[in-house]
Design brief:
TetR family transcriptional regulator, DNA binding, Tetracycline Repressor, domain 2, DNA-binding, mainly alpha, 76% helix
Length: 219
């Protein structure tokens, strides 16, 4: 057993508690998600995460390495929670984007985390970049196989078209939650929820129209 793990276990047992590693990891992860969403990577404090998780700081370093690695793990897990492949169904794009809109509405932390990540990396590489890229490649492949880019020639043009289509849909959805104040102000609504209801309905109809325009005509 390595010294860090031995120290963590010793501290836990000294207080007469049984040690559940998975439960500790879960609490750390939930606390870190809230901390990073509120303060970003630079502003987050490991001691606050430890206090909220009812865990020792050494346990955080043991399970996640350092603050940067923990932030990357949180962002990756949040991205994985929303299965873009299932929600971007080429056969029902409008309805699928409506579901994606609902998911982001119910899980505001993801947009906040992505915005913090963008600010703090300045567009540079992110933690776990290769794995995250592979995830999006898989989604694009599903879109191609589902016919989302059939109007384009096979091969690279079709793949590029599916990539552009996916990013366009994500942008149409995410912007509503990245700048909620603009959503409310532009739509001249006092109630944020009413503004979002309007945006969802418009988004679904817009994507339906865009999908129809991209669909190849029959023989």
């Amino acid at each position: 057993m390595d010294p860090l793990r031995r120290n963590v276990n010793r501290m836990v047992y000294s207080f007469g508690m049984s040690y559940d590693a998975e439960e500790t990891r879960r609490r750390i992860f939930l606390a870190a998600s809230a901390e990073f969403a509120a303060h970003g990577l630079a502003g987050a404090r490991v001691d606050r995460i430890a206090t909220a998780a009812k865990a020792n700081k050494q346990a955080i370093y043991l399970y996640f390495g350092n603050k940067e690695a923990l932030f990357g793990s949180v962002v990756q897990a949040k991205v994985d929670e929303v299965c873009h492949a299932d929600l971007l169904d080429p056969a029902a794009a409008g309805e699928s984007v409506g579901q994606l809109f609902d998911w982001y509405r119910e899980h505001p932390d993801l947009i906040r985390l992505l915005l913090w990540e963008a600010l703090e990396t300045a567009g540079g590489p992110v933690v776990g970049e290769a794995e995250r890229r592979e995830g999006y490649v898989a989604v694009v492949n599903d879109l191609v196989e589902g016919g989302a880019a059939d109007a384009f020639p096979e091969g690279e043009p079709r793949t590029r078209a599916a990539q552009d289509w996916m990013f366009t849909l994500l942008g149409l959805v995410a912007w509503n939650f990245a700048v909620p104040q603009l959503c409310r102000l532009v739509l001249d609504e006092q109630d944020q929820e009413i503004a979002l209801d309007r945006r969802r309905a418009t988004l679904v109809e817009t994507v339906r129209a865009l999908t129809a325009a991209r669909t190849p005509a029959g023989p």
